[in-house]
Design a protein that fits this description.
Blueprint (H helix, E strand, L loop, with lengths): L2 H30 L7 H19 L2 H25 L4 H20 L16 H4 L5 H4 L3 H19 L1 H11 L1 H6 L4 H27 L11 H11 L4 H23 L7 H21 L1 H7 L12
């Protein structure tokens, strides 16, 4: 395998992994606070369409990113209002949020179907970003580096800072945290909002960089992979990073195999590989449920009411 092909493969893996890493990192923080939000796919779609619409109308991809963050945030606050404010079932509300995201993104994106825009493009100067070999380190856009940096920051924040420890305490025992004066609902709302912002960015990465155009259901179920990845990583940011790049490698193999005309498997099977890998991971996890259940926050998915 030539150096150019290796560099191309590595860069494609990094870019394919970025939206999954962003979405799963936001969901990890929400789940650490005790909130199970299954609406990641819906928030990603809202982020994708608002980001694309803003970029198409203003001509600025970075304004598109800001719009995507706002779209993801507002969508997550709908979930927070229903589950934390009104104590609605988190699983049902998350599924409804995904359905809402699919429909709303199709409606908002209807005028933009088939329209293309400029990609985000590399963050660093062309001398580094365009180098035949060094571009494997310096040839990426802002969100690739942001996702890596946020993973390190979240890991440090959860483990070593007081707010991070408070968030973990809320996820482990909400009644105890409330008894000693911690604002459980406020902490959980902030965690859900953070997850919404990152899900919006993850969706925008599809419409502004990976495929800089709008089409219905552009995220193609990657939000569900992000949800599975949080469990696969045992709610640990470092494992989340490794898992995201593992799934990115699987998706990249699918693309390269199709481009190379890999004849042993039909293209439909190759397209299924990322989702088959998700099912395999969840199956392996279910074989050892004890270890996973002890890693999960004790109050995950449970409603809390400050009586």
């Amino acid at each position: 395998m030539s150096t150019a092909l290796l560099v191309s493969f590595a860069m494609t893996v990094a870019m394919a992994s970025t939206p999954i890493l962003l979405a799963s990192l936001g969901e990890l923080v929400a789940e650490k606070a005790g909130v199970l939000n299954l609406g990641v796919e819906g928030m990603m779609l809202i982020g994708a369409v608002t980001g694309f619409a803003a970029a198409a109308l203003t001509g600025s991809a970075y304004l598109g990113l800001l719009a995507a963050m706002l779209g993801g945030l507002l969508t997550s606050l709908i979930f927070a209002a229903l589950t934390l404010g009104l104590s609605a079932n988190q699983v049902a509300t998350g599924l409804a949020l995904t359905i809402f995201g699919v429909g709303a993104s199709a409606l908002i994106g209807a005028p933009f179907v088939g329209r293309t825009i400029e990609r985000l493009g590399p963050l660093l100067p062309q001398a580094l970003a365009g180098h035949p070999v060094l571009r494997v380190l310096f040839g990426y856009d802002l969100l690739v580096y942001l996702a890596l940096g946020l993973t390190a920051v979240v890991a440090w924040w959860l483990r070593y800072t007081r707010p991070g420890l408070v968030l973990r305490a809320v996820g482990e025992s909400d009644t105890s945290a409330h008894a000693i004066g911690y604002p459980v609902l406020a902490v959980r709302t902030g965690a859900v909002a953070f997850g919404g912002v990152l899900a919006g960015l993850a969706g925008a990465y599809f419409s502004l960089e990976l495929t800089p155009m709008w089409a219905d259901r552009l995220t193609a179920g990657r939000g569900w992979i992000a949800l599975a990845l949080v469990v696969f990583a045992s709610w640990r940011p470092a494992r989340l990073l490794a898992g995201a790049y593992l799934f990115g490698a699987v998706m990249t193999f699918e693309l390269h195999a199709k481009a190379a005309g890999f004849a042993l498997l039909p293209p439909e099977i190759l397209a299924m590989l990322p989702y088959l890998a998700t099912i395999l991971v969840l199956t392996l996890i279910s074989v050892r449920p004890g270890r996973v259940s002890t890693a999960a926050p004790a109050c995950l998915g449970k409603a809390f009411s400050p009586a």
